[in-house]
Amino acid sequence: MLDAAIALNRFGLGARPSDPLPSDSKSWLIGQLSAFQPRPKALSMIPSRAEVVGQLAEYLAQARTDRQAKRSMEPASLATGASRQADKQPDPLRRYLRQSIRDDYLAMNSARLNSALTTDNPFAERLVHFWANHFAVSVDKLPVIGLAGLLEFEAIRPNLFGRFSDLLLAVEQHPAMLVYLDQAQSIGPNSEVGRFAAERGAKQRGLNENLAREIMELHTLGVRTGYSQTDVTEFARALTGWTVSGIARGPMARAVGGGEDGAFHFAEALHEPGSRTIMGKGYSQQGEAQARAILLDLAASPATARHISTKLARHFAGDDPPQVVVDGLSSAFLASRGDLRTVYRALINSPEAWAAKPLKFKTPWEWSVSALRAVGQTSIDPTVAAGMLKQLGQPTWQPGSPAGWDDIAASWAAPEALMRRVEIAQRLAAGAGSAIDARALAEKILPGSLGDSTRTAIARAESPQEGLAMLLVSPEFVRR
Amino acid sequence: MLTRRFFLGVGGSAVAALSMPAMAFAGAGTSRRFVFIIQRGAADGLSIVAPTGDPQHGGLREGFDADIAGGTKLGSYFTLHPALAEAGKMFVENQALFVHAVASPYRDRSHFDGQNVLETGGSAAYQVKDGWVNRLLGLLPKADSKALALSDTVPMALRGINEVGSYAPSNLAGPSDDLLQRVSAMYDPDAQLHSLWAEALATRMSAGDAQGGGRNGGAIGSVAAKLLSGESGARVAMIETNGWDTHSGQRARLAAQLRNLDGIVGGLKSGLGADWANTLVIVATEFGRTVRPNGTGGTDHGEASLAMLFGGAVAGGKVIADWPGLSTAALYEGRDLKPTTDLDSLIGGALAQHYRLEPARVMSALFPESRGRAFGQPVIA
Lengths: 480, 381
Known about the structure:
The structure holds 2 protein chains of 2 kinds. Chain A is mainly alpha-helical. Chain A is about 60% helix and about 0% strand. Chain A has helices at about 5-10, 25-35, 50-75, 80-90, 90-120, 120-135, 140-145, 150-155, 165-170, 175-180, 190-200, 210-220, 230-240, 250-255, 290-300, 300-315, 325-335, 340-350, 365-375, 380-390, 410, 415-430, 440-445, 450-460, 465-475, 475-480; strands at about 240-245, 265, 275-280, 280-285. In chain A, a hairpin with a 2-residue loop joins strand 3 and strand 4. The longest helix of chain A is centred in the N-terminal third of the chain and has 27 residues, at about 90-120. Chain A is globular, with a radius of gyration of 24 Å. Chain B has helices at about 5-10, 15-20, 20-25, 45-50, 55-60, 85-90, 110-120, 130-135, 175-185, 190-205, 215-225, 250-270, 345-355, 360-365; strands spanning about 35-40, 50, 70-75, 80, 95-105, 145-150, 165, 235-240, 280-285, 305-310, 320, 340. In chain B, strands 1, 5, 6, 7, 8, 9, 10, 11 and 12 form a 9-stranded mixed β-sheet that branches. In chain B, a hairpin with a 3-residue loop joins strand 3 and strand 4. Chain B is globular and about 55 Å long.
């Protein structure tokens, strides 16, 4: 296995037939740390945040109106099967809005894929996907469907090479995250809105700890690293007021205020007043600055350095990464005060990440991207793209939990999953027709990596299409 | 006023077409249909139409080709594989014609290169850039030249400057048994993938996904017939069949392959109804297989094989072969059936007769690198 093959396939997104072999693999990767484009052409047509949030607000408002209308029309005791049926079929406006939101998702998913297919900086692009999974949101919550892609495009891509704390802050203030982890609706019990609600006996709304917990457990420190439930609750209190403009409607919206639809907004009226203490440290800041200060401390913690380094190492140096790689990345992280470029450089310079044998079983996303790149495809129909990833078991931005997708072979190397890859490979190969000679392509995209048994198997295939399908599911190609 | 249709009706003979080719091009069409079925993987012609009358046959293939005993007799010398039941009936009705010991100009043994030659009509791989079926469209009256590939993409034989559609019935798509088998072999040395794959295949079998042939073939034939029917339907179509590369377990695999093929041809016949009378189906493969079975119950890549012509338009009921014989001395390189009939000539001749076109014109358009002449014997009624 040549270093060039490792650079293209393990660090990159899979070689394209048109890619020259990097002559110096490490410089090729390091060069991408500056050449990366946060907003390449493939992403130029994605819907804007205001558009997405506008549709969402309209949908939620309509849903509320429908519910109220229903309640006023028939008392609950009279609710019949027929009316429940009617509730399942939302009115045309809601159906239309739901479809528009779904279209936004499809457009963003294919923009992401097209960017991955056309990029000349595949290592940098892979890092985008890594962070999008680290800061996972999931589109099984309706309000997240249109926003998930924007989190990646607006918060992650522009902060890929800055400090970890900048990336962290951009993500936690993004509407997708604030909505997904229920922060947008969290109310400080002693805030203006909180007291007002308490006076009127409204019990159902108040503090929500979801975002605070996941920031500590998943985004920064890592689970069981010494923080307590009290720390989570204190952090949740500090975070109150962090919300999104334009999503709330009615009296709540007036109390909260805000700017342009979808913008991050600090709502003083929701914020729990007072100082907070987290892991023994006091935070006496006022307003938005309080949670911001806590985030900065979390970002700089050695536990965070270890957590991030372990995940990065696992992504490149194997499911069970060598401790020496984790330690190396961790020290780079701490010494540079979370400078991500320095961390990536340390990764590139870890000899263990260059082991000349496959270290990773590709996830469905990785496999799809590399397969499409291998056959020279540069774009893909949005519906087909979404369908393919769903069939393979990894629909984009839908890991189902804030922990994101697993990054170990045991989660992906499964019998049925392998059969799905063969089916898709066969379809991709049929689509490529006989224009591609898999024998030549195999040597080109897996330079110095192809085993004799795979080479022979491809050469003996009964048609060019079959040979190509076999290349795409070969042991060398399903791993990196 | 004399309409073009009427003119053609009067002059719809070989002579008229020869003397007035321009008129034939401007014509309103002949309602003739042509279907090319490719057998990818090198089909074993010796097992499909077995030379049971050849004195060497028993010694070489007895036991290995045991199924052939139950097949349709095609005269005294050849026997048709019993899995081709519909084809056997067509033979009796003079709608099936078999030409044996045929081969394209390709004399090597690579599937990729062999199929490229078969589809482009060149004499060497990658020499000609478009396909002979596409070039045929340029020779036909506009109304006869609407063409369709029954696959995801347009196969090489149909590619070129003339417009071609493609249609893939999605419920018929899916990895072939052949691909699944080859993946098994490829994963054999890989402990992780081998065990995962074994389990995946077991699940697939128990779910009943594995097709025995026949059923699927009939559906493809019916879909093709539908697309070839009616005023606005296609007139030329190509159907791809995979899985003929029977290096092991040939007896069962070939039977399944042939049931599938028989289903396609039978589906075309029943689906086309009255139009079947104007239809020519040509079935051909890139090369044949070794005369002697190998050590794994299969055969390896060889040379000459079999071409099959079906349809109401065919002057069938016969086997045409300049039979080279099966004695070792008669074999190509001592191992393969020797090619004695040029597949290009056969195709060129059959199409010239089918469309009443000048044979030399057809040959130079379809097989520009060929020095052979169009097949002269009558194959079209």
